[in-house]
Structure formats: C-alpha cells, structure tokens
Design brief:
mainly alpha; 144 residues
C-alpha cells in the first residue's frame, strides 16, 4: 500500500517507522548520535574510575566494535582517547589550581600509573605535567 502522506498512513492504522521516525518534524532523529551522546555522558561522569568498555557496550545494547566505530565516527576519537582527553583536561585544571602532587593528581583523574599519565599528558598538552604547572604558576604571578 502506498499513501500520499504520513497522516494518511496513520489514519489507515499504520505506525511511523521506528528507525527513521518521519513523524518527528522538529529535529532530525539520529539514534546513533543519541547513543554516542549517552555514552559520552557516562564517560564524563565516570572518567576517574576504571572504565570497562565491554560492560558499557552491553549496557547500551551494542557490540564493543560497533560502539567504537560509531564513537570514532561522531567524535573523531576512540572511547579510550576520549576518556584520556577528559582525564588530561581535568589534570590540567588540578595542576593549575591545587597543590596536590603530580602523583596524587594522576590517580585522582583515573590513571593507574604515573608513567602512563606522563605519556598521555605530554601527547595532549605538548609538555610534561611539571612544566605545565611551572608555566601556569608563572602566568598567575604575571597576571594575578
């Protein structure tokens, strides 16, 4: 059967497609984008805890490879890279505003080893955490 409009099909007893949702006119329905946004929210809330991506993928009802592929498509990063970026950004804030040791900050933001923290920090920030703290405190003295 063919109908001239969605309304005609509904009147005949049919329902709109659950995948493309032609009945939603005010926004584009993108279930994959919504899934990735929910996963990002979960990662942001739990960045400083050990993260099990297998558990997360099961929680959202997709395979880990499908989740990774979608995540990379929508964010440009893998889920691991995204979590590392959140952790490094939080570490930068802590290095700027707290007197905690670099080791304490590394553990507070969710890194399990100091060497991994240094490696990720240098990849993202371009400098070592100690140098970042030193430069940041100089800026505070100049402008503060």
């Amino acid at each position: 059967m063919f109908f001239n409009s969605v309304d005609d099909a509904i009147k005949a007893g049919f329902r709109p497609c659950k995948l493309c949702r032609p009945d939603i006119k005010e926004h584009n329905f993108e279930p994959n984008r919504e899934l990735i946004e929910k996963v990002k929210e979960k990662l942001i809330q739990n960045y400083n805890k050990p993260i099990n991506f297998r558990f997360i993928s099961k929680e959202f009802g997709v395979s880990i490879s499908h989740l990774t592929r979608l995540f990379k498509e929508y964010t440009g990063l893998t889920p691991n890279e995204y979590v590392s970026q959140i952790r490094i950004n939080k570490a930068m804030q802590l290095l700027s505003k707290s007197n905690d040791t670099i080791l304490e900050i590394a553990y507070d933001v969710g890194f399990k080893s100091l060497s991994n923290f240094y490696k990720c920090f240098k990849q993202n920030a371009g400098i070592a955490p100690k140098e970042y703290r030193k430069r940041n405190s100089i800026i505070e003295i100049k402008y503060g």
